[in-house]
Amino acid sequence: MATVNLGSIKFKWKGTYAGGTPYTIDDVVSYNGSSYICILASTGNLPTNATYFEQMSQAGTNGTDLTTTLTTQGDLVYRDGSGLQRLGAGTAGQVLQTGGAGANPSWSTVSSDWVRLGTATASSSSSINFDGLFTSDYDVYKIFFHNITHSNTSADLYIRFMVGGSAITTSTYNFHVNQEGYSDGGISSGGVTGAYPSTNSTEIRMNGDGILTTSNYHAVGSVDIFNPLNATAYKAVKGYVHYMTASKILHSNFFGRNTTTSALSGVQFLPQTGNFTTGKFHLYGMKNN
Questions:
Q1: How many CA atoms within 13 Å lie on the side-chain side of 171?
Q2: d(CA 38, CA 79)
Q3: Taking residues 263-269, what's their average pLDDT?
Q4: pLDDT tens for residues 52-78?
Q5: Residue 52 bridge partners (DSSP)
Q6: β 27-31/12-16 pair status
Q7: How far apart are CA 240 and CA 206, in angstroms?
Q8: CB–CB of 272/155 below 8 Å?
Q9: What distance in Å separates the CA atoms of residue 140 and residue 228, rounded to the nearest whole number?
Q10: Contact 134/141 with Cβ under 8 angstroms?
């Protein structure tokens, strides 16, 4: 009976080509990133010799070794006009910004016309001061406050200007408060109105009826301050206070000024008597354009 030599019935992986190794049919080797299969037994013939080998797969294009470009945690890679470049990590809070077509990306600080400059928390505090925060970067400032309660029942809320770190306590303030609201918490109940003008005062009053001591009846509001660093004009503020008593819902609009022409260093909030039991104050500045 005749014998048929079927030869290899599967490929035989031989690893990297070596010139001194004999190769037989169906041996597979790697060479310069490509793979080749032997089609004619030989020794010392390169896989690129088509008499002895056929190419099975071709090496692709080598990728870029980014470890030489990216060196530090937080690095990013981008392409400029000539090749890949490293963009080092920015500072906390910055965002990635594009310069458009033909420009490189960069880190940028998020900008806003309103910038928070300070925050203060009241806790058995005789006053709350924002001092040393007025700069030439801003002409208009706004202070928001909330959760204001007093240690003494029915104490009003006052504001004073500060010069050189000290509050102005002389009788040089003028103010006017307009109050409106409703008794017994009902919209259909009788209205509560009041006007509280004053001249030659030692502070600016911000509300009509006093603010109570319990958190159920806390006060909220805001204050606008204009051109505090101006050294020729009187200093002015305006704002509102919204608050409740045991039987009323009240809203007071106020405005006031001081006849000083000195540049202000800050403002001071204080209760009519006693202390602030609770409260949060936030100072913002509007950027000059």
A1: 4
A2: 43
A3: 97
A4: 999 999 987 776 778 778 888 989 998
A5: none
A6: parallel
A7: 7
A8: yes
A9: 8
A10: yes
Q: Which residue has the higher pLDDT, 172 or 195?
A: 172
**Three-state DSSP string of the chain:** CCCCCCCCCCCEEEEECCCCCEECCCEEEEECCEEEEECCCEECCCCCCCCCEEEEECCCCCCCCHHHCCCCCCCEEEECCCCEEEECCCCCCCEEECCCCCCCCEEECCCCCEEEEEEEEECCECCEEEECCCCCCEEEEEEEEEEEEECCCCECEEEEEEECCEECCCCCEEEEEEEEEEECCCCCCCEEEEEEEEEEECCEECCCCCECCCHHHCEEEEEEEECCCCCCCCEEEEEEEEEECCCEEEEEEEEEEECCCCCCCEEEEEECCCCEEEEEEEEEEEECC
C-alpha distances in angstroms, 88 versus 7, 45, 67, 205?
Answer: 60, 50, 14, 53
Query: In terms of pTM, does the model score above 0.85?
Result: no
- Are the C-beta atoms of 26 and 8 separated by less than 8 Å? yes
pLDDT of residue 192: 62
Q: What tens digit of pLDDT does each residue of 150-184 get?
A: 898 888 999 999 999 999 999 999 999 998 887 75
Please give the backbone phi and psi of residue 140, each rounded to the nearest 5 degrees, phi first. -120, 135
What the block records as the tokens of 175 is 């103010």
Residue 188 has pLDDT above 50, yes or no: no
Do residues 179 and 209 make contact, with C-beta atoms less than 8 angstroms apart?
A: yes
Query: Regarding beta strands 22-23 and 34-38, do their DSSP bridges make them parallel or antiparallel, or are they unpaired?
Result: unpaired
Residue 210 token pair: 């006093």
pLDDT confidence of residue 1: 57
38 neighbors 23 (Cβ within 8 angstroms): yes
